[in-house]
Amino acid sequence: MSAIASNPSANTPTLQARSVRKSFVSGRVESTVLHDLTLDVRAGELTLISGPSGCGKSTLLAILSGLQPADTGEVRALGHDLHGLSMRALEAFRLQHTGFVFQGFNLFPALTALEQVELPLSYMGLAKDVVRKRAVESLEEVGLGPRMSMLPIELSGGEKQRVAIARALAKQPELLFADEPTSALDAANGQIVIDILHRIARTHGTTVLCVSHDPRLVHHADRVLAMEDGRILSDHVPPAASAAITEHS
Ligand code: ADP
Ligand code: MG
């Protein structure tokens, strides 16, 4: 029987993991990277997962976003049991409902910024004019309106990451995942990316789950989960977010 209620109410978290375990085998050695990890991500929040290198953050994000399966346990996203979906249904779910921003941007070298953003929208089967409108709006939202026709080689690291964010954002996903989105950037560009992620959660109501060891992100997160050695050690609301809640209540 499922450990997670299958009839989500308004208060049900948007993303849930129950007893998620993952091990990797290297040679004859098997090492457990996630130890029966349980976690609820609340809708519309910017949740930060922090922790030292190698503690399992990227593996956790890949499992929660449906990129990788867990060995055991359950992941439920927007009411869907990800492990219960066929490969095809999982692909469709990821395309329609999730966006992923990678540390290394993952842009296509031969496509302009506009084409990068349009590509997944075309895969979604949207009409050509809708694809163009959404792509342009998303690029404008991240401040890249004037750079739409440029290739990755003509863009700075910060601009490339903003294209990647626009590409995810244009899909209008309920869930946005970001794995170390600022670690390849200098301080100023990292700050711009952080501000954009924060604004996406605020203005679009998108649930943003971000893995990072960038300390500046802590001040912009609604909630911080600290991981160590495949386990969540603490779960807290950072001071800046608590102050904002008090101000508005
Ligand atoms: P983090 O993102 O916190 O740095 P990762 O989730 O990338 O950590 O990795 C956690 C551990 O799992 C590391 O020891 C890493 O070497 C190992 N690992 C990750 N992916 C694989 C893989 N595909 N095969 C073998 N080991 C892996
Ligand atoms: Mg990582």
Q: List the secondary-structure elements in sequence, H or E.
A: EEEHEEHEHHHEHEHEEH
Tally of discrete structural domains: 1
How large is the share of residues in beta strands?
25-35%
| Largest sheet, strands/sense/barrel | 6 strands, mixed
Give the proportion of residues in helices. 25-40%
Question: If strands are numbered along the chain, what order do they take across the biggest sheet?
Answer: 6-7-8-3-9-10
**Which CATH class?**
Alpha Beta
Can you tell me the CATH architecture? 3-Layer(aba) Sandwich
User: Which ligands are bound?
Assistant: adenosine-5'-diphosphate, magnesium ion
Question: What does it look like?
Answer:
With 249 residues, the protein is of the alpha/beta class. It has one domain: P-loop containing nucleotide triphosphate hydrolases (Rossmann fold, 3-Layer(aba) Sandwich), CATH 3.40.50.300. Helix content is 36%, strand content 26%. The chain has helices at 57-64, 87-97, 113-123, 128-141, 157-170, 187-204, 215-218, 239-248; strands at residues 15-26, 29-41, 46-50, 72-77, 80-81, 98-101, 175-179, 207-211, 223-228, 231-236. The strands form two sheets. It has a six-stranded mixed sheet, with helices on both faces. The longest helix is centred in the C-terminal third of the chain and has 18 residues, at 187-204. It starts with 14 loop residues before the first strand and ends with a helix. Mean pLDDT is 91; it is low at 5-11. Adenosine-5'-diphosphate (ADP) binds next to β1 and α1.
